[in-house]
Amino acid sequence: MTRFLHIADLHLDSRFSGLSPSESAARRSSQRQAFSRALEFAEKNGCGAVLICGDLFDSEFCTENTLTFLSGEFSRYPKIKFVISPGNHDPYSSDSPYLAADFPDNVFIFKDKKIGAFVFPDLNLTVYGYAFTSPAYYEMPLEDFRPDENQTEFTVLCAHTETDAPFSPYAPITKSQLAASGFDYAALGHIHAGSEISRAGQTVFAYCGCAEGRDFSECGEKGGLLVTLSHDGSGKTVQTEKAVFSERIYTVIDLDISSLSSDEEIANAAVTAISPYRSDSAKKYIIRLKLRGTVSNEPESAKLTELLSDYGVVEVVDDTVCLYNYLGLENDYSVRGQFYRQMLPHLMSEDKQERKIAKNALKYGLYALAGKELEN
Ligand SMILES: [Mn+2]
């Protein structure tokens, strides 16, 4: 049996440019903590190797502190082999932090665009991989690839790639190439959302996703995959298990405030909606509250953000449509008011069906004028 941890897309030292200097420093610290948590998990679960499938760094810029931190972490687990495949954000170029790093002997970095391998007889494992040497890699790294005569029982791929996008600038690999590769498992990086565990021929493959979300496009718990390769009577088996390493969790909470009228009611409803996300560690969730529905007055988003900041809410997005402010519409000289006045005779029709249709038409029209998606 061979067991390893599959992680990717750490993006250490990301800039978090939308945040204040102290907030962005805190987020960079969370990224390092997620990394530390991953390594601790790997040791506790008896991993012989940790495969880091690209974008360990966010860019060619990396602080000396981060390099010292990484060396310290790698040294802390001398029995674990760390295999790194540089990706599009941290290519193995002449300016690469990898060249400045002084990593211990248990770190193995792919430095060439051409596919190569590290053989670990003690783990019965061969890890294939390659490096981005610049931010774009248009060739197909697995084209014409034929695995060597197997020196070990298990062979895996550690790669930063975009699958099934043949013209991608991110080292494209097709499923048929994976199927022909003979790898037992392909550990992939690049897609931060992660993927399902899939199979191409005999090769099991997956994107593990990033280890720590960086913004609201990366919501939910983030982590890696614990992979166990073994052999039973009928052949090889590949087991995978998700592990969570993220320290902070980006979360979007939708709140329909259609039936609420006062600011106080809205605030109370918001607190109730957020309550499941109040954890022991008050700072675990980073919350965006999205207000939806139809309202007669625009909600006080700024006040609400301030009121809810202690609950982990960093922003309130007003996605409501201000609809039934008829008085306002009567005196509105924009196209909204003109539209309303055109609909008015139908809205006051004797015919119930016509009134219903007019009410819907008004609603849809105002949504369209507000440039908002129509909800059910
Ligand atoms: Mn990435």
Describe the structure.
By secondary structure, this protein is α/β, with parallel strands linked by helices. It has 2 domains: 2-244, Metallo-dependent phosphatases (Purple Acid Phosphatase, chain A, domain 2, 4-Layer Sandwich), CATH 3.60.21; 249-369, no CATH class. Helices cover 28% and strands 25% of the residues. It contains 9 helices and 17 strands. The strands form 4 sheets. It has a 6-stranded mixed β-sheet, covered by helices on one side. Strand 1 (2-7), helix 1 (21-44) and strand 2 (49-52) form a beta-alpha-beta unit. Helix 8 packs antiparallel against helix 9 (352-369). It is elongated, with a radius of gyration of 27 Å. The mean pLDDT is 92. Bound molecules: manganese (II) ion. Manganese (II) ion binds next to loops. Residues 9, 11, 55, 89, 190, 192 line the site of manganese (II) ion (MN).
